[in-house]
Amino acid sequence: QVQLVESGGGLVQAGGSLRLSCVASGIFLSINAMGWYRQAPGKQRELVAAISSGGSANYADSVKGRFTIFRANAKTVYLQMNSLKPEDTAVYYCNVDFWTIAAARSDYWGQGTQVTVSS
Predict the structure, then answer these.
(1) How does the average pLDDT of the chain come out, rounded?
(2) How far apart are the C-alpha atoms of 114 and 10, rounded to whole Å?
(3) How far apart are CA 61 and CA 49, in angstroms?
(4) What gap in Å lies between CA 70 and CA 22, rounded to an integer?
(5) SS3 string of 14-51?
(6) Dihedrals φ, ψ of 66, to 5°?
(7) Are the C-beta atoms of 40 and 52 separated by less than 8 Å?
(8) Residue 16 to residue 115: CA distance in whole angstroms
(9) Taking the CA atoms of the chain, what radius of gyration do you get in angstroms?
(10) What is the DSSP letter of 53?
(11) Which three-class secondary structure state does DSSP give residue 7?
(12) Which whole-number Å values give the CA distances from 88 to 29, 59, 62, 100, in the listed order?
């Protein structure tokens, strides 16, 4: 199984920056993609950014040019968020797509970290 520890959320003024981190641990064969999703009150959870094991990244249109996702190693992913806007306020969730020790593909969600951007 996988455990995820997220950190880095908080309160920041518009135009500011935050960096989220997500560290995976546990018993599994390997991790494929790692990603960040967010959910604002009254809205559906949406993809913010994801990065494959090979380093290919994709972003939501709303964050392109402002957010950067990168992996420090096979088990750690960061989301650098710059030029934050009030509409970025949400709970941010880390997600990992991994292979179990039974060679089955699965995914797992972190507990979420709150990001609040004040105007």
Answers:
(1) 96
(2) 6
(3) 10
(4) 11
(5) CCCCEEEEEEEEECCCEEEEEEEEEECCCCCCEEEEEE
(6) -115, -35
(7) no
(8) 12
(9) 14
(10) T
(11) strand
(12) 34, 14, 9, 33
pLDDT at residue 23 is higher than 90 = yes
Angle subtended at Cα 54 by Cα 88 and Cα 114, rounded to the nearest 5 degrees: 20
pLDDT digits (tens, 9 = 90+) for 66-110: 999 999 999 999 999 999 999 999 999 999 999 999 999 999 999
DSSP string over 62-104: TTTTTEEEEEEETTEEEEEE-S--GGG-EEEEEEEEEE-TTS-
Give the pLDDT confidence score for residue 34 in this predicted structure.
97
Pairwise CA distance, residues 36 & 79, whole Å: 8
